[in-house]
């Protein structure tokens, strides 16, 4: 399985939020907190479910509680994909 990119994550986040253009092209969101981006815990649970379905990487609710930014989520997902 190939690594999840920031662009791929943006697509999944948009899908989870039910929006097709939440992010501006080229917008750097890597280190912005999910809450600042408008994603609450429910949206993140949906995001994680989509990531599991599309990339096979499972993140537990306990792990998700400590993931605050897209960079942290990408690191976690890609670490599982590489393993």
UniProtKB/TrEMBL annotation:
Q: Which domain of life is it from?
A: Bacteria
Annotated signal sequence range:
none
Q: InterPro entries under this entry?
A: ACP-like_sf, PP-bd_ACP, Ppantetheine_attach_site
Q: Which Pfam families match?
A: PP-binding (PF00550)
Carrier domain location, by residue?
A: 3-81
Alphabetized, the UniProt keywords read: Phosphopantetheine, Phosphoprotein
Q: Does the keyword Phosphoprotein apply?
A: yes
Protein name (Swiss-Prot/TrEMBL): Act minimal PKS acyl carrier protein
């Amino acid at each position: 399985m190939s690594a999840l990119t920031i662009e791929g994550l943006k697509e999944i986040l948009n899908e989870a939020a039910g929006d097709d253009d939440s992010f501006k092209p080229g917008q750097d969101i890597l280190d912005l907190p999910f809450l600042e981006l408008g994603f609450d815990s429910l949206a993140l649970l949906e995001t994680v479910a989509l990531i599991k379905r599309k990339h096979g990487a499972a993140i537990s609710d306990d792990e998700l509680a400590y993931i605050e930014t897209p960079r942290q989520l990408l690191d976690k997902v890609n670490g599982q994909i590489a393993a």
